[in-house]
Structures are given as structure tokens and as C-alpha cells.
Amino acid sequence: MVDAEGQTLGRLATQIADTLRGKRKPQYTPHVDTGDFVVVVNAGKIAVTGNKLDDKLYHRHSGYPGGLRSRPLRDELERRPTEVIRKAVKGMLPRNRLARQQLTKLKVYAGPEHPPASARRLSRASSCGPATAPPGSTAGLSSSTSRASRIASWRFPR
């Protein structure tokens, strides 16, 4: 977990990109995803040097002729502070499928609070319906069911 309050945008994004790729690990391999998940809090309190708050522009295009829209960093930090860090990290990753998969391991939150992973898992499980026993467990099976049939039904679902 990284606290972005008062840290410089580019320097922080470099460290996050290295962690996402796994470059700090001895088993780092460029074509294998060996990186870790990164949670960034206080994204709205990031620091930049110089006049970047007014001079740095974020561009997007609607797809229509003349549809280029630009917004300075100051406005982008007010509207969507999480996107500022996500775009900075994305620009430091390679342009390929592996980098897109690694970017999904970046979780950015504007304030100091973030939902813990266990709470997210619990909320997902409760919204999926009634809980069922995992394959291979003896929950819900009668004692007359043999081990071989349980294993066969687990390996080869019908």
C-alpha cells in the first residue's frame, strides 16, 4: 500500500510501475507476470513540480472530427484524481497484453480510505447467491457416497 500524499507524481509512478512488473524481485522475467498488487491512497494529494498544475494537459478524443478535448492537471485532479496516477503508471509500462493485465493489479483511491480485499470478497460472495460447498468437500454429501465417486464427479462435471 502506497500513500501518495505529498509525493511527486512521476517518481511515485516509476516505483509503482516497477512493483507491478516485479522488477524488484530476484525471479523477475520480462515476459512473465511476477509483479504484486499495488494499492494507492490519497491520490488527490499528489505533488508536482514547476507549473505542471496549469501547463500539463490531459487529452481525450470523442472520435468525431474536431472532438479533441484537453484538460489541465489541476482540473483533472479535482474531477478524477485516480486517473492521473493510473495514466502516469500506464505510460511507464510496455505496450502489450502483459502490461494491460499488470495494470489491472493497480488499485487507486482518491482519499485515505479504501475497501479491504476481504470485504470486497465477502460482498461479492453474498451478492452471488447462496453459498455452495467447494468441489471435493464432504459438506452436503451422505456417508454412503464413496470417495471415488466424489472425486470423479469433481474432476468430470456433468
Characterize the structure shown:
Helix 3 packs across helix 4. Helices cover 39% and strands 12% of the residues. The chain is of the alpha/beta class. It has one domain: Alpha-Beta Complex (Ribosomal Protein L13p, Chain: A). It has a 3-stranded parallel beta sheet with strand order 1-2-5, with helices on one face. Strands 3-4 form a two-stranded antiparallel ribbon.
One letter per element, helices H and strands E, the order comes to EHEHEEHHHEHH
Query: Biggest sheet, strands in spatial order?
Result: 1-2-5
Structural class: alpha/beta
Ends: how far apart? Answer: 43 Å
Q: Please write the CATH class name.
A: Alpha Beta
Shape: globular
Second rung of CATH, namely the architecture? Alpha-Beta Complex
The CATH homologous superfamily is named: Ribosomal protein L13
Main sheet record: 3 strands, parallel
Say how many strands there are: 5
Q: Note the quaternary state here.
A: single chain
- Number of helical elements: 7
CATH topology term: Ribosomal Protein L13p, Chain: A
Helix content: 25-40%
The number of distinct structural domains comes to 1
Q: How much strand content do the residues show? A: 5-15%
